Amino acid sequence: MPILSDIINAAKEVIEVARTTAQGMSVTLSHIPAKKDTVQYPDEPVQIYRRFRGEHFLDVNEDGKEKCVSCFLCAAACPADAIYIEGAEDARSYAERIGQDHRYARVYQIDYGRCILCGFCVDACPTDAINHGHNFEWAVYTPGEMVKDKDYLLANKWREPGVEPNEKQKALAAKQKLGKFNMILK
Ligand code: SF4
Ligand code: SF4
Asked: Does residue 51 share a domain with residue 27?
C-alpha cells in the first residue's frame, strides 16, 4: 500500500508545516500590541547608555584651561594609530595661557576613519583630558572629514546632555557652533 503511506506522509507534512507556521505567527502577532522601541530620531531624543563609548571630547578644568599636557600617552596607547599630536610650550603665566600646564597640545587630532573606540587613550591619559562622549553621528562625505581637530573635540564637551559651562568656561563654550546632541543618558 505504498500510495496510502505516501498520502499519510504528505498529510503529516502538511499538518507539521501548518503547526510550525502557526507557532511562528503567534510570536509575531504577540508583538503587535507591545510598546514600540522605534524612535523618530533626531526629532525625538534617543536613549543612550552612559557607558556607551562615542566620539571623544577634550576636557578643560574649572578655569577653562585645557587639561591636555601633550604627554603623548594616548597616542602611544592607541592600537589604531588614530591620534596625532603636536606638543608646544607656553611660557606665559597660568592666567594667560590656554592650558593648565606650560606644555599643551598645539595640534590634537583623532581620525575616526581609524578609531575603533577601544578606550585605551582614555585609560592612558594622566590628566583626564581625553574622554569618550556619546556622539554616534559620524556620517560624512569624504574620509578627510573623519579627522576631528582640537577645537571640534574641545567643543564636543558642551554638546553632551546635561553639561553646562561655568562662568570661566563660558567664553570657550560660546565658540561651540554645533547644537546639543538630542539624547537622554540612561
Ligand atoms: S578609542 Fe582606541 S582607537 Fe580610538 S583613538 Fe582612543 S585608543 Fe585609539
Ligand atoms: S590627552 Fe591626555 S594622554 Fe593624550 S597627550 Fe593629552 S594629556 Fe597626554
From this structure: no
